[in-house]
Write a structure and sequence with these properties.
Rossmann fold
Length: 640
């Protein structure tokens, strides 16, 4: 489809020179450009399509970037990026060196706040509004938040704070599931325009001023009349009770509804927070048959004509599916096993578990703090909760993990998905800190499977372990293709294993870097070095017997983990130092992720950048070879 209007927009002022009657066509062209971009790159799809008209209207009405426009989560911001000078790079979305799949401050002045996790926009927007007022700057601050993100307590904490201020903050509630919407129609639209109009505010302000000079009883009556008008508009909603002027709902796909309300808010001289309830359809205008909600939330590359999605190259089960299947087996045997997720049933595999056990799986919404303490309460009464969260989302429940679970030594099982680097989602979703923030806590057992079979064993081990909290962490993506046993084994807590016995150099691997460590050892074998490979299995408690054996029988030790500095390797190094193992000739090195935020790329590209692929491990290991082997390796290289 041709995009003649969009083709002439190279900067945001080009769009603002269009007439209002052209904006619907521009929105249609912007939707076409978004579909084209995602077909080439993959990524979040439905949310962006649902806010195309809203994106056009917001940028048309408000003076962005001077007026601040914050997109909660940011996964719906692809149309926003196209409009704000990034169309020429939109086909680089989520690719190495390309545009982020989320908003990012260093990427554009039109991205005033970076995102990736949900429910932060109102807090950030309030901070910006207060800062502007303190500096004497008059600007509008607009935060767009989806109704899913309104299930997080942080959003209500921010609204509670904002409602007690007189700050100029506009919150757009993008209701794209019709989950909290009232009927959308002519009366709602009329009232929305009325309540945001200059005349409404002037009359209201006049009534407030006049009433303040009357006795208290009359003033209170006038205020109740004003509140009644507001409640007529907002249905006496929770938002109005929190101190917001509640406007809507209005049709988020109709420019005739959006523009008057937004312009009235822009031109209003009144202060205080406002919430505009906008109803949209997630995936609106997608060109393919079938429902648009879940199917088009996030997609791989697809054929723009047929909608056929590109299949992944492998045919192996994902770690997520192995976890789900293993948990179903464990729950079949033990009726006390329950599972909790925070708005990610399909992402964590718990949708499969819920199909089998509908009354034993709980989705608590985007509320990780609540999820953790809810699990703690279940554990107090003898249940066996598995709290399944992405690694980066568990960060949001860390206080509860410490205070409500670890301090009380409750047997909550944490299934930590997306542990390690995650590829195109980049730094905001990279699960690289859980080893560091978990291993510093007393009482927590941390299991790290090296393959699918090990994961099945560790699910069974967690189900059987009642002496305190436990965690099992596993990566995004497919397994290595090993055979998964029908009957899982319950592992001895804190015990690793020797995978390959050699001499001279020992590689102690944690988690799924084991395969790359074995491949690195194969490369070393070409140099005449037969390294020992050990699978730690547990980040905590340390298998000190295994570590002692490795350092007694080898000249060098290389520790490998896909985690940030301060995790497993740090604890091993502390043990080695305190036991005096570093006082002698032992050469010990730790190979972790670098101390930087790693940008979006393929997972393999990120691992290569970090030096945690087979070549990177081999490169570091070569420097630890005994000198006789170094000479042998050089001779082989010359003769090659």
């Amino acid at each position: 489809m041709r995009t003649p209007l969009l083709d002439h927009i190279t900067q945001i002022d080009d769009m603002r020179r269009l007439s209002e009657r052209d904006l619907t066509q521009l929105a249609n062209e912007l939707r076409t450009a978004t579909i084209s971009a995602v077909s080439k790159t993959g990524g979040h799809f439905g949310a962006g399509l649902g806010v195309v008209e809203l994106t056009v209207a917001l940028h048309y009405v408000f003076a962005t970037p001077e007026d601040r426009l914050i997109w909660d989560v940011g996964h719906q911001a692809y149309p926003h990026k196209i409009l704000t000078g990034r169309r020429d790079r939109i086909n680089s979305l989520r690719q190495k060196g390309g545009l982020s799949g989320f908003t990012k401050r260093i990427e554009s002045e039109f991205d005033p706040f970076g995102a990736g996790h949900s429910s932060t926009s109102i807090s950030a927007g309030l901070g910006m509004a207060v800062a502007s007022e303190m500096q004497g700057i008059f600007r509008n601050v607009v935060a767009v938040i989806g109704d899913g993100a309104m299930s997080a307590g942080m959003a209500y904490e921010a609204m509670n704070n904002a409602g007690a201020t007189n700050s100029r903050l506009i919150v757009i509630l993008n209701d794209n599931d019709m989950s909290i919407s009232q009927p959308v129609g002519a009366m709602s639209t009329y009232l929305s325009r009325l309540i945001t109009s200059r005349s409404y505010h002037s009359i209201r302000d006049l009534m407030r001023e006049v009433a303040s000079h009357f006795p208290l009883e009359i003033e209170l009556t006038a205020r109740r009349a004003k509140d009644a008008a507001r409640d007529l508009m907002g249905g006496n909603s929770v938002f109005s009770q929190l101190g917001f002027t509640h406007i809507g709902p209005i049709d988020g796909h109709d420019m005739g509804h959006l523009l008057p309300v937004l312009k009235n808010l822009r031109d209003s001289s009144s202060h205080g927070p406002v919430l505009v309830h906008v109803v949209t359809e997630k995936g609106h205008g997608h060109p393919f048959a079938g429902p648009s909600e879940e199917k088009y939330h996030a997609v791989p590359k697809f054929d723009i004509v047929t909608g056929a999605q590109q299949k992944s190259g492998g045919n192996l089960p994902s770690y997520t599916s192995v976890f789900a299947d293993s948990l179903i087996k464990a729950a079949d045997r033990d009726p006390k096993i329950v599972a909790i997720t925070a708005a990610m049933p399909s992402g964590t595999g718990l949708d499969k578990v819920k199909t089998r056990f509908p009354s034993r799986v709980f989705d608590v919404g985007i509320a990780e703090q609540h999820a953790v303490t809810f699990a703690a309460g279940l554990a107090c009464e003898g249940m066996k909760p598995f709290c399944a969260l992405y690694s980066t989302f568990l960060q949001r429940g860390y206080d509860q993990l410490v205070h409500d679970v670890a301090v009380q030594n409750l047997p909550v099982r944490f299934a930590i998905d997306r542990a390690g680097l995650v590829g195109a989602d980049g730094a905001t979703h990279a699960g690289v800190y859980d080893l560091a923030f978990l291993s510093c806590l007393p009482n927590v057992v941390i299991m790290c499977p090296s393959d699918e079979a090990e994961l099945s064993h560790m699910v069974a081990t967690a189900a059987a372990y009642d002496d305190g909290p436990s965690a099992l962490r596993y990566p995004r993506g497919e397994g290595v293709g090993c055979t998964i046993p029908d009957a899982a084994e319950i592992l001895a807590i804190g015990k690793g294993r020797i995978v390959r016995r050699g001499s001279g150099l020992a590689i102690l691997s944690l988690g799924t870097r084991l395969t790359a460590s074995i491949q690195a050892a194969d490369l070393l074998a070409v140099d005449g070095m037969n390294a020992t490979i050990a699978d730690a299995r547990f980040a905590k408690p340390l298998d000190t017997d295994l570590i002692d054996d490795l350092v007694r029988t080898h000249e060098s030790l290389l520790i490998v983990e896909e985690g940030s500095p301060g995790g497993f390797s740090a604890h091993v190094m502390t043990y080695l130092a305190n036991q005096g193992h570093l006082d002698g000739p032992l050469k010990a090195r730790a190979l972790t992720l670098p101390d930087v935020f790693i940008d979006h790329d393929s997972q393999s590209g990120q691992l290569a950048f970090a030096g945690l692929d087979a070549d990177g491990i081999y490169s570091v290991a070569r420097k630890l070879l005994p000198r006789s082997n170094e000479k042998l390796g050089r001779k082989k290289a010359k003769g090659a």
